[in-house]
Amino acid sequence: MNSPMVQKPTRNLALELVRVTEAAAMAAGRHFGRGAKMDADGAAVDAMRLLLNEIEMDGKIVIGEGEKDQAPMLYNGEMVGNGEPPILDIAVDPVEGTELVAKGMPNAIATVAAAPRGTMFDPGPMFYMSKIAVGPEARDVVDIDAPVKDNLSKIARAKGMDMGELTVVILDRPRHAQLIQEVRDCGARIRLIPAGDVAGALMAAWPGTGIDVLMGIGGTPEAVLAACGLRALRGTIQGILWPRNPQDRQQAIETGMDLSRVLTLDDLVASDDTFFVATGISEGPLLDGVSYSGGFVHTHSLVARGLTCTVREITAHHHLETLAAISSIPY
Known about the structure:
Layout: H1 14-29, H2 37-52, E1 58-63, H3 66-69, E2 79-80, E3 87-96, H4 98-102, E4 109-116, E5 128-134, H5 148-159, E6 167-171, H6 177-185, E7 189-193, H7 197-203, E8 213-219, H8 220-233, E9 236-241, H9 246-254, H10 265-268, E10 275-280, E11 291-293, E12 296-305, E13 310-319, H11 320-326
Parallel strand pairs: 1-3, 6-7, 6-8
Antiparallel strand pairs: 1-2, 3-4, 4-10, 5-8, 5-9, 10-12, 11-12, 12-13
Helix pairs in contact: 1-2, 7-8
């Protein structure tokens, strides 16, 4: 009888990247509810960049802050890490939900993903896509081209539920009026969120969130980040690029993008060897937010590796006085 292939444990970069998202979340947390979203984002960017450059890796930002958020750092094409192998694509969102942080609302996270160089999808000029994301039970039954009712029926059957028991997470946008009506016509429940569709996609695959599926139009960069996490959660995501206007459509055509193509999980990140981390900034169904007590700041993170489908929850307690003495980051 042949023995199963045995592989020695290899380096789990996610366990190092969690320091990056913790730092970003703590830096942004100081601005929670203060009405200054750019201050929160800037603090998180500074903290994230500093910690990324301490990691032994040759990382290239392919999903960054640059074009979409007009940020001065962590732009697409920026090199991070110390230049040593492994050679990686890096996707970042130092604050997913800057408005959420500014207004003191739930569900903001700091997130980073990594995968082998050349495996992450490049959105180019296309910032938005129509998406559907689910967990492992329904990963083989969804079809973004199918009617909403067909997808919800198949998801419910795969999960052993009635359609009326399903909860769909959708970004609260005027463009989703028809989608919302179709979901309600099926009898399913809806959780509308003002921002945060990386978190929304992960909620659909993480037990205990009460979310069964993400639907609707959201960010293309966020879809790549979510895909890296869904690899480890054994969920899936499908998307179709969505031009906002004729200019978007023309740019897509000029760059050779197919606006009718269904992008699968494998298209968004073409490797199982993904690393994904997210730390809560404000409390939500996925993660607890940054909190303070007794001279400590407390963080809650998901730390996921696609190669092994291992997902860890890490609750950390950071002593503020000690950090202030050794760190340049204003936690």
